[in-house]
Amino acid sequence: xxxxxxxxxxxxxxxxxxxxxxxxxxxxxxxxxxxxxxxxxxxxxxxxxxxxxxxxxxxxxxxxxxxxxxxxxxxxxxxxxxxxxxxxxxxxxxxxxxxxxxxxxxxxxxxxxxxxxxxxxxxxxxxxxxxxxxxxxxxxxxxxxxxxxxxxxxxxxxxxxxxxxxxxxxxxxxxxxxxxxxxxxxxxxxxxxxxxxxxxxxxxx
Length: 205
Fold this sequence. Notes:
about 200 residues, mainly beta, 12-stranded antiparallel beta sheet, 12 strands, disordered N terminus
């Protein structure tokens, strides 16, 4: 039975925050969710699967979107089989560079299983950062060659300053609400991964 979800629980931790991009949505059946997984990860999941999407905005695009703060974006979506829970766990890592400031910024968190928008025309993952850090939603283009990332606010960290004081929010301004990022080889998202075992698995995909 389909249920309307107003808030998506993303983690069991006490400070887990739901994605700020979450809107009213409906759960989808297993077949629809499996079909979306196949589209997102370009095949059956297996024990662990990755999908990497990248966009580097050229001068022409940025000139047409003068208020866009982001000059480049990398998005890594992961799915891992959790046999003990009889489920699949989803997560994301997001990396951005800004057009008017130096440094590389990133964020990460967990995603819920696939849901549908109220209209039912789009299936997506809703992903959030713990401790009310906002989040993103991730859908796919019709040809599955690009991801459509939407955000209202998401906490980002400066990789060169690994402490709490280095965090700040990327807010959805006039030109930073929706990002279309293109599917690429998963190795292009290697810089977003810090765990050595996971990095090795990613590079062999």
